[in-house]
Amino acid sequence: MKKQTEKSYQKLGFTYLETSEIVIALNHLLANYQVHYHKLRNYHWNVEGPDFFELHGTFEEDYKLTEKNIDEVAERIRVFGIKARLSIVDNLELSEIKETKLTISALEMVREVLKDFEILHSKMLDVLNAALETGDNATELMISEFMRALEKRNWMYTSLCK
Fold first, then answer.
1. Domains, the chain, ranges and CATH?
2. Measuring CA to CA, which residue among 98, 77, 79, 114 is closest to residue 32?
3. Where does residue 145 fall: left (phi above 0), alpha (psi -120 to 50 degrees), or beta otherwise?
4. Residue from 128, 111, 110 nearest 59 by CA
5. What is the pLDDT of residues 62-105, one digit of tens each?
6. Do residues 114 and 161 touch, judged by C-beta distance below 8 A?
7. pTM of the model
């Protein structure tokens, strides 16, 4: 018989305590994704120069994928019974990715995206490690898919800078 003080709530066989590290890591990833998304939108709207057509379309592809990933991360947090409640202020405080001025060149925008990718990759690794420690295969799979796509985009942007 359970004691009155014990929480009986479990999601997917995990307790709140077991998933707390995953949720914390997902919230950090979510905050960074949100700031990255807005940077990509701004870059899409404001890129100029000889690479305009290529980068305008590329930034759009990336912000659409980022928007999809944001939704998946927030919904994954909800799977664990927690509400994703990051305000704009929370996102800016929690995110390691920072906004930039819009007066930067197209090449500087690409370099900023590459810096963001490094931070996002690090945050994904944090989520992946927390999921692996807990045995959360669904989060592990989701993040592994994000990482594979991010690594490919990183290669493409890096190639553009050469």
1. 16-160 (1.20.1260.10)
2. 98
3. alpha
4. 110
5. 999 999 999 999 999 999 989 987 899 999 999 999 999 878 99
6. yes
7. 0.90
